[in-house]
Amino acid sequence: MNAEEHRLGRRVLSVFLCVHLWLGLSLLTAQQPELQRLEKSGDAMGATYSVVLYGTDREKMDAAAEAALDEVSRLDAMLSNYRASSEWSDVNRRAAAAPVKVSPELFQLLSECVEYSRASEGAFDISVGPLMKLWGFYKGFGRLPQPGEVAEAIGKIGYRHIHLDAAASTVSFDRPGVELDPGGIGKGYAVDRMVDVLRRRGIRIAMVAGSDSSIYGMGAPPDEPRGWRVNIKDPRRARRTAAEVYLKDMSLSTSGTAEKFFRAEGRVWAHIMDPRTGYPAQGTLAVSILSPRTIDSEAWAKPYFVNGRQWTEKHKPAEFRVFYCEDKADQPCAWLP
Fold first, then answer.
1. Which one is the CATH code of 36-335: 3.30.420.10, 3.40.640.10, 3.10.520.10, 3.40.50.10350?
2. For 134-180, how does the pLDDT look when each residue is reduced to its tens digit (9 = 90+)?
3. Which regions of the chain are under pLDDT 50?
4. Alpha helix positions (H), the chain
């Protein structure tokens, strides 16, 4: 074989390999079923929970979404303070009189809540219930109480009044009037539980949200490899976006003054309480947290809001990203270092 014939043979072989590779990739693509999108939602614990997921088996997807919503309904029966029959409400009714035996799941959750309270120096406090009712934020949008009423409510608040007995799995309060409020943790916990249900059922691409304030993105949607795109609203201009994030096996929770508030005596009073003073926290407009667990991002959004930017910069874990909006006209919203 001369040199020309050798070059011709190599070109023919190259063309053959390219055609063979193209046919193989085309066949592989044709064999892969198209991803389908499914959305479902339901109400529980005073919030709306939604699921968006992708998959190839419609029946499997539908069953997984229903199972996730069933899970949040189960949690509603355990955690809701809107239900007199819930385990949470039973603790509030009876724990000041005698220790109340609770399920292992509720005991573990309350233990985590007490730990959040310690770590946040009391800025997060699961016993804030009396204050939320006094200020009208329980099932409402607020009223301005008298100073004497605030002082009375503070006497019923404090995580140190909650006593957990791990050996007996009981909860007790050391004074009457203590009342636990799941509002600062319930959505985050429910979203994480829903995500666990989806994973156990083989779902790999999904977004789960609790009232749009606590969100978890599993995997990445087919049109965006970076993850699920979520806009963080500008608290000063509701129609504008302050930041854009992509959730890929990550959560986002936001606490801000725009959710529930009222105006009185020339000031805005929002629903995010400082349990130590008895008054709504001042100086912050909104805090958004990215973290691996939704329960963490929701729980920590409150003390970061209450304790202020400098405290947050000093105490936030390395795996958290925090977007902070101070109540200062000359201070733009920004990601903390």
1. 3.10.520.10
2. 988 876 677 899 999 999 999 999 999 999 999 999 999 999 999 99
3. 8, 12-13, 15-19, 21, 23, 25, 27-30
4. 3-31, 58-79, 87-94, 104-119, 129-134, 147-154, 186-200, 294-307, 309-315
Structure-token match 């959040």, residue found = 116
Show the tokens assigned to 168: 């007996």
Cα 33 to Cα 226: distance, rounded to the nearest angstrom? 22
Maximum Cα–Cα distance across the chain = 105
Q: Domain limits of the chain?
A: 36-335
Which amino acid appears at position 155 of this protein? G
Report CA dihedral (54, 57, 60, 61) to the nearest 10 degrees.
20
Task: Give me the amino acid identity at 69.
Answer: L
